[in-house]
Amino acid sequence: MTLGDPAPPHAPATPAPVRGDGPGLLAAIAEREPSIRILVDPGARESHRRDETAWLETGLPLAVAEPATTAQVAALVRLCAEFGVPIVPRGAGTGLSGGSAGIEGALTISFMRMARVLEIDHANLTVTTQPGIVNADLKAAVAAEGLFYAPDPASYETCTIGGNLGTNAGGLCCVKYGVTRDAVLGLEIVTAAGTVVRLGGKNIKDVAGYALIPLIVGSQGTLALVTEATLRLRVAPPPHTTLLAFFPTIDAAGEAVAAMTMGGLVPVTLELMDRITVRAVDDVHHLGLDRDAAAMLLVESDLPGAAGIAEIEQADVACQTAGASMTMRAADAVEADWLRAGRRLAYRALEEMGVARMEDIGVPRSRIPDMLRAIELIAANHRVTIGTFGHAGDGNLHPTFVLDRNEPEAAGLERIMGAKAALYEAALAFGGTVTGEHGIGASRQAWLHRQRGEDAMAMMRAVKGALDPANLLNPGRVLG
Question: 373 vs 33, 198, 249, 251, 362, CA distance in Å?
Fold first, then answer.
């Protein structure tokens, strides 16, 4: 399955060459900004070389800066501009596209010390926070006030809000509440010139000028550094009403998703796992899942009381009409949490089978069955096990390669790279995308041009050139 052109190269990205006067920068920071914590020991630098992206060649940072305030971030950016040293912004390092991996000779700016919730505004249903806070910690802080922050990537217990902003992260609630960008009302950023700029605020409606916030969110630190965010909250919903549905065929699961969509249902969660993933999860968590099913859907409603029950009943009817072999509902909130945890831990369950490497593609929801069939064919053609799970409600799938731990890495890598190219080809052929929520970063650059085309790439390069003319903000990422 191709688009007619040869596949772009899929070799791991190489580190950018050392640029600028690194020793001069470190001396200037020590002299002019002595209050900023700078880590130069080999262990600290090495620990910031990689994120969680597999098989990516990375560089060793010149040093790791740990600012505590926006003023310190701005000072660091101005000094890097003065000495021509590139900058890599970094949160917890949980990314899966290499966006926060080290660049040789660059200054990595870690935001982990900027982790305070600055304000919870009940009247406007907003929270203003620094970027270093972990997603789960922000959720807990607002939950204590009876409020809810919706974006919830699978790594929510470890990833930071700044990283979520950088990649425009998604999660299990996207089908109803959207991705991170949909929750952002305001940003404080530091530009490549070291200027502090505020964008947006607490207004729900604000169309003054160009929409700069959506441009910054998802740019992976290549256009500006985010130092503060004002995010949309909601009143905390009641406990979820949960349904599991098992299907004898992939097509039947796809028909159920289509029926729910066309029927106007907007569940808070609509997740899919294929047979390989169902079995892996059941092996680890012993949930009593149907191990012979070709696919499983997890459907949840966060509507209150009778409305939630009615929504799940409609979803149940849609699944059974599509040919579900079995449906089951969680007996209570504890069981619902248990079942949801099984989906969240799908990747960890696949890791029990061997060396697991997650991918991230998206297709229009109507093409999910086509994509799942293509994945099965790709797995057979390239002799690699692929377990697939993901967000059926918005078409974002995570095919995950699983290699035998006893197989030489080089042999497995060659097969996986071929399979990965075939995955991307298939997603694009179905009108999809090579990344739904993990970002282009350093690992998918060869495919960005393929997906967007030269005219769109020229527009992106013009934006990058205007906002970062010296190319010091995370150079080599996204656009290459």
Answer: 57, 47, 10, 9, 14
The reply to whether 14 falls in a domain is: no
Going from the C-alpha of 428 to that of each of 177, 271, 421, 447, 451, the distances in angstroms are: 25, 22, 11, 10, 7
pLDDT tens digits, one per residue of 39-88: 999 999 999 999 999 888 899 999 999 999 999 999 999 999 999 999 99
- Residue-wise pLDDT for 198-250, tens only, equals 999 999 999 999 999 999 999 999 999 999 999 999 999 999 999 999 999 99
Domain C-terminal end among 167, 200, 235: 235
Q: Is residue 166 part of a domain?
A: yes
Q: 210-218: which pairs have CB atoms within 8 A and are 24 or more residues apart?
A: 213/181, 213/184, 213/185, 213/186, 213/187, 214/181, 215/463, 216/165, 216/187, 216/189, 217/165, 217/166, 217/168, 217/180, 217/181, 217/184, 217/187, 218/165, 218/166, 218/167, 218/168, 218/181, 218/439
Contact call for residues 85 and 107 (beta carbons, < 8 A): yes
Range of the domain at 45: 22-110
Asked whether the beta carbons of 245 and 299 are under 8 A apart, the reply is: yes
The pairs formed by 433-436 with CB atoms below 8 angstroms and a separation of 24 or more are 433/361, 433/362, 433/363, 434/361, 435/97, 435/360, 435/361, 435/362, 436/170, 436/360, 436/361, 436/362, 436/390, 436/391, 436/394, 436/395, 436/396, 436/397
Give the pTM: 0.92
Q: How many domains does the chain have?
A: 3
Tokens of 440: 């282009």
Report the interhelical angle of 445-452 vs 454-467 (nearest 10°). Answer: 120
Smallest Cα–Cα separation from 247: which of 375, 372, 383? 372
Bridge-based pairing state of the strands 295-301 and 269-274:
antiparallel
Contact between 148 and 229 under an 8 Å Cβ cutoff? The reply is no
Using alpha carbons, select from 138, 335, 142, 125 the residue that is nearest to residue 239: 335
